[in-house]
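Chapter summary example.
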Amino acid sequence: MDDAVKQPNDRALRNGLVGVGVVLIFDGSGGMKRVEPGVDHAAAPANGFKLIVGNSKAPEFKIWLRDELGEFNSGLITAPTSRSRCTVMDDKALIVLRVVRPGAAPQDVGRQFLTVWIESNRVIIASELNILDFLGLSKVDQPHHAPVTPADLIARLALRATDRLEPLIEMLGERLDGIEETLITHSTEKAQDNLEQLRRTLISFRRLVWPQRDALSTLEIEDLSFFSDRDRLRLRDAAMRTARIGDELQALSERAVLVHEEIIDDRAEQMNKAMLLLAAVTVVFSPLTLITGLLGMNVSGIPLADHGAAFWFVCILLVLIGGGIAMWMRKLRWF
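The structure predicted for these 335 residues follows.
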């Protein structure tokens, strides 16, 4: 049996998913170039910045982070997390964003996090996600449309994360439409099951979107010296777009509540109809039961006790009384 260790493919190496990562230098005018990691490379231009991307699980990248940023800061970057957040330390910032898996179903969005360390002329991204493909930077011979500032890079990350959410929000809206159509056909039980699953999914989406909006808003309002007005505008746009997704989720949640109330009303109406039918049957048969009970007493003096056709006479009487009560209830629109 071949015990050779499986070697990573060229694509994983090229995109920094294994090893010490990948280094890109942006000139601040929309251009960029790639520099091999592990060697002394040129510093970023005065108006540009440097991007280092690595896998947060790769041992080589963790060692590089510890040597570069220290034990405490490197631990913040690689520590497991469950929510988006933004932390500012001196003139540096740490922001955690959550991205859904490509092609994920609404009920299983996954937990792909990317942690970004931001300085005036350097950005470090630690994530198991293929960041270069995610941002469209996997090819070096790009047109001059690369990020021009660290804030521009963060805004693009947030917008790409939102782009992955929008199709899932549309799918949730279509599912809610399907539940409403199911209610029209009075399939209440099936609609209730689907609605419960949809509401759980909406809750998980809100847990994803709202902290991300708050993290972007926090980064925008923090007093970082290297953020320009244009940078803050870009971050505000990203936060507003994330907030719009949150508003759509809130609207879907409110619709789901209305559908749930409609299901409850439908069930209450069905129960009321059943109770009305039972009440009508009770009203019809109560006097008949009284009459038959009186005639069935084991005492002397019962009328028609010795008459041969007494049974049929009583039956006809009961039918007439029951029919009369039913007609009277029908006239009152009880059923």
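To summarize the output: Residues 1-6 have pLDDT under 50 and may be disordered.
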